[in-house]
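Query form — protein GNAT family N-acetyltransferase

QUESTION: What is the three-dimensional structure of this chain?
INPUT:
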Amino acid sequence: MLPLHIRLAAIEDAPDVAAMVRAVDLHYVGPEVARPIEPTLAMVEQSMRETEGTRYALAFLDGRAVGLACFAILRPGFRLSGLLFVKELFVAEEARGRTIGEALMHWLADHARERGATRIDLTTDAGNYGAQAFYERLGATRQDKVFYRFNLSSDVLTGEGIRQDTQESA
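ANSWER: The structure tokens for GNAT family N-acetyltransferase are given below.
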């Protein structure tokens, strides 16, 4: 058996990243809602080619992608050090219980430290007790924060109703 290997994904890994992203969707929203692989691959390739902050790390076991971390380094952060924000951490069902999630978190911590970042932030759904226990077991501290979301498919933050002088100064 090949040892676990984790690395930053490159553009040639886009099919593996897309397959893992689709596995996340299938896990959380099911096949009725999850997007097909083609638009998933297109999104992954676009995010990898642009200069946006999205990065992906893949965990391979026996040469097959079994773990995924979607993350970004955000700055400025505390004392300008920045932080690493984890958007998704996922391990394929058949690979769970083999410390792959923990290995991905250690890899993310090393990656963040190498770039001068001093913390990792992430969120979980309120009812995802397994993920919460996992992060707390690794030493994460629960924060007293309120999480907000703007749903841009509705009529929020459209710019309508903004005073003209506000638009000019922005």
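ADDITIONAL NOTE: The CA atoms of residues 45 and 83 lie 24 Å apart.
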